[in-house]
Structures are given as structure tokens and as C-alpha cells.
Amino acid sequence: MIESLPRREREVFETLCRLEASTAAGVRGALSDPLSDSAVRTMLSRLEAKGLVERSSGPGGFVFRPVQQTEAVAASALRRMIDTFFAGSAASAATALLGLGQRLTPEEAAALEQIIDRAVEPRS
Asked: Membrane-spanning residues where (predicted)?
């Protein structure tokens, strides 16, 4: 369902997922291209009506949280990015990420090696 959201609603939802919980003002402040306060509140209300967001009362007003697990949202967003920018190739996306120059810790490298070993198709 996240893929079918309008662009700005998806951006508000993904921002809330990154924050894990926030007020409308907090979401607005974390957006790369801020919207008006009323626009953010409207989008959060729409997301709540769609069952993607829940709200509760907090000391600074309503606090919004994504209903879905953040991991599922992250996987969906990553799949969309891989499909859009890397022609569906996870290997191309991984190569691009590793080419950004950030050094891996030995633990990260070992974890990647294990994942690659499991993902490689056996030769027949």
C-alpha cells in the first residue's frame, strides 16, 4: 500500500518511520522539503485513516507512530529504490553502496560475506 501513496504522503510516512514516533511539528521539521503545519497534520490524518499511522496523546500534543514495522517499510523502500535506480539488481545496488567510500568493520564484512554465500546460486 505504501507504493500507492501520493509522493508527499509517502515522504511524510517514511519520515515518520525514520523518526519512529513524532508530533506533526517534528515530522515537519525533519522533512527535506518542509510543508506547512496544516499540510503535515492533514497528511498524518490521511495516513491514520488508511491504517498506516496511529496517534496517541503526549505531553506536547498528539504523537504519531507508524503502524507497520519499520523493517517492512525499509524493505519496501529499498526494493523500490533498487527497481528504480538499479534495474532491479540488488548486486548493482550493493556495489554502489560499497563504492561510496565508507569503510566496513571486520564484523560488517563478515556479515556481508555470509549473506553473499547464502544468496549465490549453486553451480550445477
From this structure: none
Question: If you write DSSP's letter for every residue of 58-124 in order, what string do you get?
Answer: ETTEEEEEESS-HHHHHHHHHHHHHHHHSTT-HHHHHHHHHTT-PPPPHHHHHHHHHHHHHHSPPP-
State the maximum Cα–Cα separation within the chain, in Å, rounded to a whole number.
62
Instruction: Classify residue 34: in a domain, yes or no.
Output: yes
Q: How far apart are CA 57 and CA 80, in angstroms?
A: 33
- Region 75-80: mean pLDDT is 81
Whether 24 and 37 have beta carbons less than 8 Å apart is answered as yes
Average pLDDT, integer, range 3-13: 89
